[in-house]
Amino acid sequence: MGQIDQETMDAVVAFHGHLCPGLLIGVRLAKAAMEALGEPRAKDEEIFCIFENDSCALDAVQLLTGCTMGKGNLFLKDYGKQVLTLAVRPSGRAVRVVFTGDGLKPTKEDGTVDREGFIEVLTERDDGELLKVEHRSVAPPPRARIFPTIFCSVCGEGVMEPRAELMDAKPVCPGCRAEEA
Ligand SMILES: [Zn+2]
Ligand SMILES: [Zn+2]
User: Fold this and answer.
1) What is the pLDDT of residues 118-163, one digit of tens each?
2) FRET label pair with 41: which of 2, 7, 68, 72, CA 20 to 30 Å apart?
């Protein structure tokens, strides 16, 4: 598996459900970013990441960096770019890793992308051929907050207080508001 150890490969494929080029791009971005930053996997919010694409790559990034949607230390920018910024709180010391390997996508005789060939490129080539790594600093976003739960006056289900809105002075959850609209 060239640049990716078998244990990592097994873990990301088990989590994501299949092996695909996007997943491998995420593995390469995450490994390079963690190495360049010199920090271990995030336990809490001491490490955070900004990822610029809602693609398959994001699953590998979440698993390997420990920056996840659930923990609140993953900030998704829907820019359609395979770019990962990994950073430390509170200093904002960061690395930004850009996937630059699109030009190495092999094509078949009919001009379509050779998926298996691209998977090989993504597992075998050196970081220098696939990635650009920059050291920079970013302003840390606010930490994740925990809000009290209140109860929706329509469905009775619990909802995070700032997500509920008052209608006729009674709290209504976003789900019930959507159904009413
Ligand atoms: Zn995939
Ligand atoms: Zn409701």
Assistant:
1) 999 999 999 999 999 999 999 998 888 889 999 999 999 999 999 9
2) 2
Q: What fold, for 149-180? A: Wheat Germ Agglutinin (Isolectin 2); domain 1 (3.30.60)
Question: Which residues of the chain form CATH 3.30.60?
Answer: 149-180
Geometric angle at alpha carbon 79, from 78 and 84, rounded to 5°? 90
Global pTM value:
0.90
Closest CA to 122 of 59, 32, 14, 51: 32
* Ligand in closest contact with the CA of 12: 1
Ligand nearest the Cα atom of residue 173: 2
